[in-house]
Amino acid sequence: MRLHFYFTRILLTILITGGLYFSSCEKEPMLEDPSVKLVFSTDTVLFDTIFTTIGSATRHFKVYNPYKKSILISSVSLSGDTGSPYRMNVDGVPGRSFSDIKLRGGDSIYVFVETTIDPVGGDLPMVVEDSVVFVTNGNTQDVKLVAWGQDVNVINGEIFNTGTLIAGKPYLVYNSMLVDTGQVLSLEPGVRMHFHRDSRLFVAGTILAEGSREHPVIFEGARTESAYRNIPGQWEGIWLMPGSSGNRFVHSRIRNAFNGIIADTVGSPGSITLYLANSRIENMTYAGLYARGTAVYSYNTVISNCGYHTVALTIGGDYTFYHCTFANYWNFSSRTTSSVVIANYYTDIYDNINLRPVKALFGNTIIHGSRSQELEFFVHPDAGFEVEFSHSLIGVDNSYGETFAGIFNNCIFRKAPGFIDQSQFNFRLNEDSPAIDAGDPVIGVIHPLDFDGKSRTDDSAPDIGAFEREEEPEGEN
After folding, report:
1. Which of 260, 291, 401, 418 would staple 281 via disulfide (CB 3.0–4.6 Å)?
2. Residue 307, pLDDT above cutoff 70
3. Contact 375, 340 (CB under 8 A)
């Protein structure tokens, strides 16, 4: 009985296995109608502006079989063939052309595409086009590929003497760059500086980045695709080294670095190491302005969205900020530090306390963010701490204002500044903002035009911050 059962199981196994084998050998019915068409998730794959010699981000699209029966795609290829600047990967397999791809009924495959564009020597962006061509039952379909390519001036670890960088083609920096000691590098309005990963602008001499409202000087990472538009930490930032002096950033925009500007230098008494005006610093992994024992004069400056501090004034120094907006709504991680910190001492690696007197004036300035405490002092009683906030809106609680009562003059605490849209970096004031007409007129006269060029002196008092709200005349929509 047991022997009979054993052989019966073997026989059933053979029959089942054989049935599966012969079933799998049967030819699967395929749609052969020439009117059959694939369905694509898009008809055009667009790439943002790509610098020559730097590859793009990878884009993808899906290819669907909308029918119940399988389809045989006889070929998939780039229409530019071997001369195409594009590369593709079909369902995990890289190549320029593929043949006999079976797509089951209701199924889909992914096609990934990227490109690298060769230099052409022009200043203006050029369009680079191609397409992915599908042939199914003699029927040809395609998905267009469109990229904007931009030729660049390449800087690779160069040391600069006195000279001028002109507007036109952007500058792409590999392996950092240095303005040498005693040398002055000027940047014309409209110059665009793009830094490859881990690169930095070192300044041992002087840099003059003086743009205009219409043509600012731009410092940012090398990736210009939309996916990288607001990603911090793409490059190292700008370092004004010890001995550097007379640096000017006017109508400049510094974005997406680890630190925006490190001012790490002590100049001669009364001199200004960094003059920063009508500029924006945003999306920094650590700090927007990290100043260590130096001298900074700034107005109409917007510093926003930094992982630790918008402004860190450490190891003493002499600082003046008029009509600035420091707004920290960092959302890449949980920030536990105050947006603005000021210290008159530091502890070295041997745990020795080093005293450094600090002098700082904040006039008609907004300091606000996502934390309840956006201003913090580190004060040693044996070092000078001459700090004043005048007519400013500050994100601290009332008790902090009471503890340091002599430091604050006509300031607003615990009130939201009323930005139009902080998520879109629009730190202009809405109509209900408590900062409207709350500034000191004396300070407003020092810099009578705001970041946008609007007058601060046309009404009773200037608004606090870098932007003056301009009310519409009655009767206008």
Report:
1. 260
2. yes
3. yes
